[in-house]
Amino acid sequence: MALISLKKFKKKLTSKTFEKFYNPVQEIAPDMPEQKPGGNKPIEFDTENQLKALVYYHIESFESGRHLLQELNTDDFAKSVVAPEGGVKKSTFFDAINERGLDQFSYLFEALKTKAVCGLPSSHEELGKLTAIDGSLIDSVLSMYWADYRDNSKKAKAHVGFDLNKGIPCKIFLEDGNSAERPFVDQIIEPGETSVADRGYQSHKLFDQWQHDEKHYVCRIKANTSREILQQYDVKDESIVFFDAKVLLGSEQNNNKSELPLRLVGYRVDETNYWIATDRFDLDAEQIAFIYKLRWEIESFFAWWKRHLKVYHLIARSKHGLMVQLLAGLITYLLLSIYCQENFSERVSIKRVRQLRIEIRNESRNMENNWFAVFLNILLKLFAIF
To answer: How confident is the model over 373-380, as a mean pLDDT?
Structure first.
């Protein structure tokens, strides 16, 4: 009876901090698409196991999939809270990442994004819904044949939309490193939203198309872009803005002239001139300049995501597997956003991530100590009986 009691106790080991952090997934999971086995054999490493393992991978900032597997099979906390009962084999783990879970992870990402949008405060609501767009290259290996980039080099590219009001990622697409960035604007931006983009997205025909589709834009353009001034607006004294006008961009000679008028704002920071094309005539020029400055937040997100969550340390080499890993990284970031807001009324920071890690580890040690205390108590009772 003593051994049975000990076994029951061991199954109940958990982490309140990890449960609290992971709880938004538990609330959404019942509506998630069902993952069906390929044959008669039941799935050993299901969606929940897969997601918990990858979220734990990012939270603890492991350097590789092998490191994570070792933890799942040897660490008491990881075995009790994260890994499936009985542990996980290397082949089972990597097969799951490369072949399953994409539909389920995509659903969870969208559902968590919706929850985060509802719960997080808006930083710049008066400017409308702002979505920064950018592509991020991911170093790959030569065996990743699908990730074309250049000779003797493979790279994938994540095309990401980032909600500048809420401070969270909102869309992601994965292609090879040579994929063009402009086509993804239509897939990321909804009517009524404003895309915020760098010079690589400049396209006068797309500027026209986005206006037709009622999709707004704030996009930096090349300084030497031809322009026809239709109407010039006054600029404020001592403002960083030195130019504000309604224009047509491009030239008929090069067959790239815009058909619809747009607004061109020029501003100067640290002796650098920025030229911003936009269809937002409802804002003043300083607000347009401010919106473009916010684009830096997506750059900061990429840098933070890579450095602190190790998202670009490849676990999978297939396109399917890499997308699963990226979605897991985005889900982890959304969970962190919800956790930091609900518990500290703050945005995500490395300070709070470190605090989360420490609390989980401390609870892990307490779990081990409690387990040992119960084990010792049972032994003492057995000795007393005999």
So the answer is: 52
